Amino acid sequence: MTAAIPKRVVNIIIGRKLEALRIACEMSQAQAGKLLDCTQNKIGNIERGDSGVKIPDLTTLLDGYGPDISTRQNLVDMARGREGRYSPKSLRARFHGTMREVVDLETSAHYQWQHTAMTIPGLLQTEAYIRQLFRSVRPSMTPEAIERETVNRLERQLVLDDPGKKFWFIIDQAAFERMANMSGSNAIRRGQKEHIAEMIDRPNLEVQVVPWEVGYYWGQESNFAIFGYKSDPQVQLVHVEGIEDGDVTSEQEEVSVYLKVWKQQIAVALGPEQSRTFLLAR
């Protein structure tokens, strides 16, 4: 079952609805700021979802914008609902920093589109591959830490079992070639390729491989994921991976760039059935 929408996404939805209401009544951000006795910047932050609007401020803005009763109640209910706390026993509680937000997005977004250049996407990794990745970290992780992080990553993968969520992965051939002699043999690579080939049969999941023959393509060096919500209005966020953490952005101009990159990557990659043939080739 899809998890509750994260607080950040709710803030974005509320902010964009408030922006639409402000524009509908032909009011500038500066004029809206006068309603709250605040700066234009604060209104901009609220409308982008960078900062969540407090309920007293929300009701003041709604008094000024004059929406219908249904719209007003819906926004107030959304604002109140986001205040609920996460359970300390939830999966997200096992992660820190940006990865905690990524887990929130993975479990709540209606769809996820991801491109990886040099590694296999975490949601598609086999246990053997995961353990080998953690063993490569320096300074070395303890056996207990490797076990803990492996279990956490495998539990993240359970989200793929939700038929109501859609997943689309584009993987550069380099990610597979990096496994050629992993742990001294080809066994991990063979197992990983067979696992992904099997995943292609899932009705909620697509995989495409970008082969060497394509040459350079836009965004080939980037590891990123686009998370989408079929809300009103629709919301998309992008997680760009870093060495340790990475960053999540909802800035529409930045998201737009990654959507353009994603479309080109779809175009240059092998189709799903061609990708299956690639994966099963010895």
Automatic annotation (TrEMBL):
Record-linked InterPro entries: Cro/C1-type_HTH, DUF5753, Lambda_DNA-bd_dom_sf
GO molecular function terms attached to this record: DNA binding
Residue stretches spanning the membrane: none
HTH cro/C1-type domain ranges (all copies): 18-72
SMART domains cross-referenced by the UniProt entry: HTH_XRE
Pfam families, sorted: DUF5753, HTH_31
Protein name: Helix-turn-helix protein
Organism this protein belongs to: Umezawaea tangerina
